[in-house]
Amino acid sequence: MEILEQLTEVFQMVFEDDEIEIDRHTTANDIDGWDSMSHMTLLMAIEEDFEIEFEEWEVIDLSDVGELIDLITEKLSE
Amino acid sequence: MNSQQNIAVLCTTYQCQQGNAHKTALRWVDADFTCADYTFAALEQQSNRYANVLKNLGYGKGDRIFLYLPPMPEVYFSFLAILKRQAVAGLLFSNFGRSAVFDRLSDAGAKVLITKQSLLRRMRDVIDGLPALEMILLVDADQDEDESVRSLPILLAQASDEYETPPTAPDTPSVLHYTSGSTGKPKGVLHVHGGISHQQQTVKEVLQLESDDLFWCTADHGWVTGTTYGITAPWSLGHSLVQFGGLFNAEHWFRLVEEQKITVWYTAPTALRMLMREEDKIKGKFDLSALKRMYSVGEPLNPEIIHWVKRTLDKDIYDTWFQTETGAHMIVNRPGLPVKPGSMGKPVSGIQAAIFVDGERSQTPGTIGSLCLKKGWPSMFVSYLNMPEAYAAKFKGDFYESGDLAKVDADGYYWFVGRGDDVMNPSGHLVGPFEVESALLELPEIIDAAVIGAPDPLLYEKVVAFITLKPGLAWDRKLEIKCRIHISNRLSPIAVPSEYHLRESLPKNRSGKIMRRVLKADYLGEDLGDISTLEV
Predict the structure, then answer these.
(1) Model-level pTM?
(2) What is the pLDDT of residue B510?
(3) What is the bridge-based pairing of β-strands B353-357 and B360-361?
(4) How far apart are CA B329 and CA B327, in angstroms?
(5) What are chain B's domains?
(6) What is the DSSP letter of B29?
(7) What fold, for A3-77?
(8) Between chains, do A36 and B494 touch, taking CB under 8 Å as contact?
(9) How far is Cα B12 from Cα B4, in angstroms, rounded to an integer?
(10) ipTM for the whole complex
(11) CB of B70 less than 8 A from some CB of A
């Protein structure tokens, strides 16, 4: 499964909305409910689903889904 | 204006009559920093148009009409329109989950919900359980779904921008906000149009806005601060506001203050602590010379923040205290009053505060007790909707009991000590433990749950959960994520516990009530106190 496809499913699960569609340019402003409080839950769900672990400093400055995909890709290749 | 006390008229029609028609009322800055200015004349026309939509649909005086929208210009137009129709405006935090929204709409008997398509999807599973809800207006639909789910843009296109608001008496219900308590579901706090006079007084006395100021209140319109100081109080005096459609981001916030030349900024300690954490991204990189001062609300302002703001931004910051029930500032720091860092400050004009201990008014400085306010100020709430006994219980004689513990020093400064109940305050938003516990118990893996608020260096308080699992089940990360997602979507991300502690059983008294006090003392490593009624 493509990372974007798998990540979309995580977003849909975390925000309980099957109609959420994301692309590399999606930001928190585009998703209802994606705020600094729900961000932690989203990251935990991504870690679990992709079987990776983020460091706090790696995720603090993520500005869009594209950067998140790049980080996941990097983690999966480690 | 004597027969016309309508808040929305004061914010629009009256401003146009007073020569502010061409003055900017709202500068809307989108997340991508595109700007749109709305004058008081535009605000008048837009709110008239929205009012005519409601009128044409047959909604008006006394009807409860709710807004469930993220910050966007439509919020302000529709909110003012609801007030012009003399209906009651219920404003909801857009990150509320479906249960939080359902409970509020259900309790209020909401007839109309103004929302957007993605937020309505959250409500689909529960909407049939709201028999009073007759009409849903979608701000982003280009066609009607059916007779009861309508496209607001289509209705607006057919509506006139001329509307005459009926004379509105000061005791006419206006705004309904919900607030959490220790037990049960959130209570509907009802305010009236006449409350605007105290709101206006505090803008003059506390915020001290001048005619050329540009004011930014970062609170969401779903909370009382966002409604009172983010909309009605400044506009009713002809002041210009900035509203930002983006989320928290240290650099974006400072860019906004710099580019828009914001002069007075009202925010919350949690946001300030997040800014402090990212000091290296902002310090010295933005020209904040237009900014005259800052204010804070929602939780006590640590002296550390006051010093940081002075040291890093070279500004003064003033802490303010009020509640959903009080409708406007009660005890504040303000320019002209020497600040004692960490203090709540002093009562505003016309407000008499007192400390009560065991039902008696304390006259001894430094005594910790219940913070009370002499009732009768204009912005005081007039009821808890459908809960007259709970409303009556908030008053002891002539005094309103805030539920906060505080002390007053010999100079008349008040000092917040803590909550007198189990209500938690993560990031400046009150969360009731019962709601979180109930939501946790909906998960089949959990057979018992209790939550407490515990000190947190960033959030002020974090929600900490104690849970008992079904026999044979083990706690793991998957289950924690499941809990987090469930609470976030049922209640709100703010209510999600940061920590989960497994317990074989939870401490209860003989009547089966969970003793959160014992859990909290145990968690904090404090003396457990009187546990003679402990059953488990």
Answers:
(1) 0.92
(2) 76
(3) antiparallel
(4) 7
(5) 43-194 (3.40.50.980), 426-524 (3.30.300.30)
(6) E
(7) 1.10.1200
(8) no
(9) 13
(10) 0.95
(11) yes
